[in-house]
Amino acid sequence: MVFKGYKLLATFYGLVCHGIFLIAGAVMFSTILTGFQFSVGALEGLSAVAINFLLLIQFPIGHSFFLSKRGMRVLEIFAPKSYAKTLRTTIYATIASMQLILLFSLWNFSGVFVWQIEMPANLIMILLNLASWALLSISSIQAGYKVQTGSLGWTSVYQGKEPIFPDMPTRGMFSIIRQPIYLSFSLVLWTSPQMSLDLFIVALSYSLYCYFGPMLKEKRFYRIYGNQFSEYQERVPYYLPLISRYVGPFKRG
């Protein structure tokens, strides 16, 4: 059944998705540069530890779950049945953005710092952070910006057609390493002039996730692309340039 106001529906999903996406980016950017000093969580002691732990794990768990078959079916709950599958990428990006907002705004700040770099040396860290954001943006665009930003779903509904997913990315930053998005995300977390204990915990935890998490993604890519992905895997390092062609346990043959 086709809803007559499908363009209005698509526009609504697009506005919600990209609005929350922009808010998440702004909150994450400011929180990383200030080391969680201005997050609104006000709990102390074990309550703060418990809530912070839940905030820490909810993003990687959700990020991985909603990419699974069962998770994709859950995403479809949030859209009219006729458009649910098409809107999955939009809903996925919206939920991921909301999860980041929760993490970076509700965290309970410890007040402990690993390092604090003062002016003018902190300008170097800020420039490194901006460079990391640039790498993250470039790699996301090269991977297929419509998928990464969630626009593929709602624009497909608006145009009344099935979503066309981009081919496996192999050019640009993906010709240097196979997981530039995850590496760039880690770099964003580490390049703060105000490295609080809180940010250190988040950066360390998510760096481990960014290293090991994509191994499941690579298994899925092999199922989809077969020998094309195997040849790409032979040719391009996993996570760091100029390191072994196979990094991690997933190795074919």
Could you explain the architecture of this structure?
This protein has helices at residues 6-34, 45-65, 69-75, 88-106, 122-149, 151-159, 180-190, 197-212, 214-225, 227-235, and strands at residues 113-116, 194-196. With 253 residues, the chain is an all-alpha fold. The protein has a two-stranded antiparallel sheet with strand order 1-2. Helix 7 (180-190) packs antiparallel against helix 8 (197-212). It starts with 5 loop residues before the first helix and ends in an 18-residue tail after the last helix.
Residue ranges: pLDDT <50 for 5 or more in a row?
249-253
The helix content is 55-70%
Order of H and E elements: HHHHEHHHEHHH
Q: Quickly count the domains.
A: 1
Query: Distance between termini?
Result: 47 Å
Instruction: Give the spatial strand order of the biggest sheet.
Output: 1-2
Q: Using the alpha-carbon principal axes, give the shape.
A: globular
- Number of E strands: 2
Calculate Rg over CA atoms.
Answer: 19 Å
Mean pLDDT across residues:
92
